[in-house]
Amino acid sequence: MAYQNKGAMAATIVVAASDSLNKAAANYVCDGTADDVEIQEAIDALPAGGGKVVLLDGVFVISNKIEYPSIFEMQGQGIATIIKLANNTNPDGVPLGVIGLLTNKDQVAGNNKVYIHDLAIDGNKLGGNGGGNYNYGIRHIVGSDLRFEGLFITSGSGVGISVSDATDIAIKDNRITDMGACGIGADYLRSCVIMGNIIDDTDDEGIDINHTGGVGGDIVISGNILNLSNNHDESGIEISYNTYGMQRIIITNNIISEYYIGIFIKGSNGDVATGKQTQESIIVSGNHTFSNRLHGIYLLALYGAVVSNNISELNADNGIRVTGDTVTRLRVNSSVLGNIVSQNMQEGIFIERADSCTVSGNDVGLNTKDGIFFSYSLNSICVGNIVYNNSQGTYNTYNGITLSRFDYGLCSGNSADDWAADLSELLTADAAAGTKIIQVASTLGFRPKQTVTISDTTPDTEDGVIASIDSLTQLTLEANLVNNYGVAQAAQIDGKVMQRSGIMILDTSNNNSVKGNATQGNVSHILNEGSAIEFDKAPHSIALDLTGAATDIETFHASCPCVLVGYTILYSVATGGGAGVEIRVGRYQDGVALDGDYFDTSNSELNKAKGYSKNFVTADLTQAVIAAGDTVTVGTAGGKADTGSVIVILHIVEMAN
Questions:
Q1: For residue 446, what is the DSSP state?
Q2: Closest residue by Cα to residue 170 from 200, 141, 191, 140
Q3: pTM of the predicted protein model
Q4: What would the 3-class secondary structure string for 516-575 be?
Q5: What is the pLDDT of residues 299-350, one digit of tens each?
Q6: How many Å apart are CA 471 and CA 468, to the nearest integer?
Q7: Residue 93 in 3-state DSSP?
């Protein structure tokens, strides 16, 4: 129907659908066929200074794209206003090609000051418009001051909202579902807010920002809920760029699940020739990523990122993964702080080929492999993390913290404990001595704050031993443990400890400081294969004359539980070619005879110059745990026929700090 002046302002034109309730209020009335013609006429009738088109309730069936100018507003009546692509209009991009059902007119010079809100856009895939990424909901190329809010976009074969080469953009409070590509796609954005959107059932990313050919930044992605029900290998939020770089990006308070990767940011490689990198200033904070098919959060080749206060759980690989560029090996200089990383199917936090990183204050537990794993990392810090009950997949295989090729770093102040259940305060003994079988009701273990009932399977005259436990950690308890106890002795059940060690230092790690960590309750407390490591304590013996009489010298007294993780033999006088003699590390306890070779024994080497040293690691030892009150001794069998003198330096860590 041609334009009718209904007394409205010239800058506002009202368009009714064929099924609108109040057609009389409209300047244009559509007939349900090629409604894009009437809508386009209404837009073109706006004055040069800009204006507004109001779409009334109803379904507007279109057969071509609708183009809008600058200084333009389109308003619907919420989900009661639907712009729908007609059946078989653009299957496989024929004849229209890649279109936005709503798109800007000038895609070279651009269109500015655009506000589209409160309506629905239906790409009608089931009506023969599927195939290929052709039919977008909104497609805007070049512009500034753009707002797309309160839209419901569905059933398109392309992107829900696509914006390229634009500044000052707000994409807020939209519902996007069932798209053949990503929910929100953007290239070369500057000063952009993507907030409060709900996106699901997309074939590609939930939100995809690509800057591989231009400069962008100042972007906030916040408060979005992203869920992918299609089984495609795409990310919930993906940002990628190359040497042009991108700065000042904040990704915060999003909920992301069932994608391939929850949050994936691929940075620049830097300038390989000069080694220079751009400080990218990326913050990933307060997000919840869970049940994704690979990693929860993955940063690749970034410089200067902060990952903080996120919850990343139940992902099929790592909870948080930070990887440097595998070619340039330039610095990463990123921080992983204060995150909760739990029940992931591989390592909780994995740092790979990433130098100058800080991993601190994280709560990392119940992961299938290691809690925290460093691989090829220089000048990095692992401080103040709580790491517990990892190695859930295989008992006594993985560690709380593993340091592999971790050089010139600091590992300090971590709590890498692994706790079994202690029910001694909950179960009481029978009136008579004997053996009881205590059975755990759930043999699958229990999670934090879950109650487990312990029952007496052979009740007699007592009321029955019934108790419950409210634990802080997940434990795996074995069924039918036998507990022998006497009269008035408390009964106790110990759960299975999972972690192989609290901290594992592989032989590829050198020149680090490992101090002030708590490592109680593990199968082994700290396993050390590295060299030039600074531990909590490094007491050394006096010079031991290998040619003298046998002797054992008290070298260290433990005031708290400790672990001997290795020792070094330093030759203070050169040895001759005669047979070597025994050098030993032993233990003395009050009231117990000296066990001179309790921890280890070895023989002195022949023809070694003064200053030569040999390092022994955890695997070389017979025993490692030093109980509080124990004294460690260092001695020699003496009697070497020629020359030689050694000093033994002990490498000791305190189990609880």
A1: B
A2: 191
A3: 0.84
A4: CCECCCCCEEEEECCECCECCECCECCCEECCCCCEEEEEEECCCCEEEEEEEEEEEECC
A5: 988 888 999 999 999 999 999 999 987 665 556 789 999 999 999 999 999 9
A6: 10
A7: helix
